[in-house]
TrEMBL record:
All copies of domain ABC transmembrane type-2, residue ranges: 44-279
Keyword annotations: Cell membrane, Membrane, Transmembrane, Transmembrane helix, Transport
Family per similarity comment: Belongs to the ABC-2 integral membrane protein family.
Protein name: Transport permease protein
Membrane-topology descriptor: Multi-pass membrane protein
One Pfam family this sequence matches: ABC2_membrane
Location of the protein in the cell: Cell inner membrane; Membrane
Molecular function GO terms recorded: ABC-type transporter activity
GO cellular component: a single term: ATP-binding cassette (ABC) transporter complex
Transmembrane annotation, as ranges: 50-67, 87-110, 131-157, 169-191, 198-219, 254-276
Amino acid sequence: MSSHPPSGEIQSAVRNAPGVPVIKDVNWGGLRTLYIKEVRRFFKVHLQTIWAPAITTLLFLIVFTIATGAKRPVHVGGIDVPFADFIAPGLIISQGMMGPAFANASFSLLAGKIQGTIVDYLMPPLSTLEVLAALLGGAMTRAFLVGFVVWVAMLLYPGVHVTPSHPLAVLWFGFLGALFLSLLGVLTSIWAQKFDHAAAVTNFVVAPLSLLSGTFYSVDRLAPAFRAFSHANPFFYIISGFRYGFLGTADSPVLVGSLVVLGVDVVLFVLCYQLLARGWRLKS
């Protein structure tokens, strides 16, 4: 009688040896669990994460349409657009979607590093791509929830028309914009060592680029130097393309803007993936 174990037991022992991956395909269960964890985290404080940014965005609309007395139409793409209709799409995407996406993504890994729970992200049997996908999915879910709430509120707001003329453009640029800020948030969360670092990125990078992107004005009316700066700002192409989905006109070629933002998203995705795979500032 042979003293060797059956071949099936040998193969099982090899598969379960330390360092040998057991899950060779996508770990859908783990990916779903991490995604649900990210969504539940911001739902637990929904007054702060969903309703607060929605109310803030609506206050921007009220201030710029009523308190400032802005009644003149804005010239966009060769046509005159009512001021309220012009700024509403920009507010939805910039303040209602991209801001919450960045806030959510920039908190996850940073909180884990500060609280000492980063091992919860590093130890589970999840690949780098699966971890990144879950983080991005949670941030983009929050972005679309806040954006939807703001859009519904603006539908009911008198004097503002936010019925999409090109729904696919609204969804496409909403997706690109939310993904862009989610990736930037993950990158910030990897780099930052304390909450002050994340706040610095918010105050000195995200907020200026958002406010100087043509949300409240048409860039065609700017001086040449400031117009050139606006065209170098990815936020400008996101907002212009998103506005096109509602108004049917834009400050820039929609296809060019789509390619620019898509290219930036791809570069940021590769960068975030490489840093997560190396464990830069996460495993030290």
